[in-house]
Design a protein that fits this description.
Distance between the termini: 41 Å
Number of domains: 1
Shape: globular
Number of strands: 9
CATH superfamily: Spore Coat Polysaccharide Biosynthesis Protein SpsA, Chain A
Strand content: 15-25%
Largest sheet: 9 strands, mixed
Radius of gyration: 17 Å
Structural class: alpha/beta
Amino acid sequence: MKISIVTVTYNSASTIRDTLESVLNQTYSNIEYIVVDGKSDDSTINIVQDYEPKFGNRIKWISEPDSGLYDAMNKGIGMATGDIIGIINSDDFYHQTDIISKIVKAFEDNPDAEATMADIRFVKPSNLDKTVRYYSSKKFKPGLFRYGFMPAHPSFFTYKHNFTRYGLYKTDYKIAADYELLIRFLYKMKIKCVYIPIDVMKMRTGGTSQFSLRNTYLLNKEIIRACKENGIYTNLIILYLKYIIKLREFIFTNK
């Protein structure tokens, strides 16, 4: 079973080595690694080129202008030749070497599964051993989309044919195209997704949708739109209830 892993980069020189190393060090060998760069003007591509000999023919990359994060993800999916596709951001990394092996085993053990989901850790950029939030997909059910919850998107792996059948990321979303895609796949199309009890990766805090009040408002507006487009009713009052639960996650993680 061939796994394609896609990383989108833009001026990621300060973090991309960790991502590259974490993919390179996976014990599962049948991995195709794809880097889609948005024409960085720092040393990102130089670093990727430095790693090319280490990956051999298992890596390919492009560097060109794009229309944003989700456009770049779609390019990577289009370049993928693997059976299964996963995405890892350029400031995140697999912190164990057997992650992909465990994901492949989950697909092999569940032949009717169309996707897998798992857990992730948010860590301090200044201390990658310090977990500030543990995000588990264990209790996720498609009905929770209405309340603004989704499985951890970076832990989501699915067959490439699902992108062909059900579509790619919608590039007219600024923040929540991953949310919309998961609703479409898991709720509307009802593909079977198996939970794996592992934390797939460490993610540095400070992503596109985190913390800014403006981004939080935009995120929730896009979540409402995503739900509406896929036959789910929600509103801002319902969505803001989730922040109480997120606060509890943060408190219990940092006890």
